[in-house]
């Protein structure tokens, strides 16, 4: 993966209050305080209520973590009770916002139009969307996983210009592998991550496709990450459950050791 910095992104989902967030962030910083992991970018995607605490720690101790949110409003301000805008996230120093996670699509009815609007909202405020795409079990069993995932990618990027798309991160997350312990084989991950890169080349340019990072997500752990990372089109992992345990997440970050 010439020139693409591996990205290990922890999605804490709806876990850890702000005090627990501080404890985990400090533990990670302590364990990762050596030059060994300098070739890897580590991002913490945390609940909205934890962002300020993570920001304060990262700034005060110059921690080498990026951080961000797990969702973003499609709107910038106004009468949208319960939502958090890109303006607010940018003000908190966020680099990333997860967009279109399968749990948002499933439990909050986020369709392609919503995901597309949220991708655009992130770019409006200088945030980098971590765009999640991936098929459910029925689609996989029907052998339509590549087409399905590329259609999600097309929908999410509709009308997004190349200058923005260059800052995109895509996460291929087969829904059947999320939180199930059922990890995709390295070949499965490569097949779809490679297809995503190919489509980015068609939608934009070969140069953009070579630079955008494509992650795999779905039951990544310390003992399966190296085989997945050995695939040429997998540039990192979006990690749910294992990102809540400092030791396990540190193993993932140190996958090459
Ligand atoms: C996720 O929620 O993005 C995820 C990949 O979860 P897990 O690692 O727990 O499967």
Would you list the SSEs in sequence order as H and E?
Answer: EHEHEHEHHEHHHEHHEHEH
**So, the CATH homologous superfamily?**
Aldolase class I
Q: Which structural class best describes the helix and strand composition? A: alpha/beta
CATH topology: TIM Barrel
Number of helices, where a helix is a run of at least 4 consecutive DSSP H or I residues: 12
> Which percent range describes the beta-strand content?
5-15%
Outline: globular
User: What is the level 1 CATH name?
Assistant: Alpha Beta
**What is Rg?**
17 Å
Average pLDDT number: 96
Number of strands: 8
What count of structural domains? 1
Distance between the termini: 17 Å
* CATH architect. name: Alpha-Beta Barrel
Q: How many strands, which pairing sense, and closed or not: the largest β-sheet?
A: 8 strands, parallel, barrel
Can you tell me the residue ranges where pLDDT is under 50 for at least 5 consecutive residues? none
Q: Could you estimate the helical fraction of the residues in percent?
A: 40-55%
Ligand inventory reads: phosphoenolpyruvate
Strand order of the largest sheet: 1-2-3-4-5-6-7-8
Walk me through this protein's architecture.
The protein has 12 helices and 8 strands. With about 260 residues, it is of the alpha/beta class. The chain has a single domain, classed as TIM Barrel, CATH 3.20.20.70. An 8-stranded parallel beta barrel has the order 1-2-3-4-5-6-7-8, surrounded by 5 helices. The longest helix has 18 residues, at about 185-205. The mean pLDDT is about 95. Bound molecules: phosphoenolpyruvate. The site of phosphoenolpyruvate has 13 residues, from strand 8.
């Amino acid at each position: 993966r010439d020139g693409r910095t591996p990205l290990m992104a922890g999605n804490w989902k709806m876990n850890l209050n702000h005090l627990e967030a501080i404890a985990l962030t400090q533990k990670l910083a302590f364990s990762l305080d050596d030059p060994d992991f300098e070739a890897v970018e580590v991002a913490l995607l945390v609940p909205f209520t934890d962002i300020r605490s993570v920001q304060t720690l990262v700034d005060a101790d110059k921690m080498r973590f990026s951080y961000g949110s797990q969702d973003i409003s499609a709107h910038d301000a106004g009468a949208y009770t319960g939502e958090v805008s890109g303006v607010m996230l940018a003000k908190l120093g966020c680099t990333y916002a997860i967009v279109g996670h399968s749990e948002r699509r499933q439990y909050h009815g986020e369709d392609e139009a919503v995901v597309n609007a949220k991708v655009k909202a992130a770019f409006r405020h200088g945030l980098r969307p971590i765009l999640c795409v991936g098929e459910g079990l029925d689609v996989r069993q029907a052998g339509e996983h590549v087409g399905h995932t590329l259609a999600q990618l097309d929908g999410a990027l509709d009308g997004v210009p190349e200058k923005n798309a260059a800052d995109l991160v895509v996460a291929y997350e087969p829904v059947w592998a999320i939180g199930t312990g059922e990890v995709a084989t390295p070949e499965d991950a490569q097949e779809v991550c490679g297809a995503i890169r190919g489509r980015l080349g068609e939608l934009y340019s070969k140069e953009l496709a070579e630079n955008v990072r494509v992650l795999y997500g779905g039951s990544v752990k310390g003992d399966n990450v190296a085989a997945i990372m050995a695939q040429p089109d997998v540039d990192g992992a979006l990690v749910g459950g294992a990102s809540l345990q400092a030791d396990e997440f540190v193993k993932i970050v140190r996958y090459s050791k």
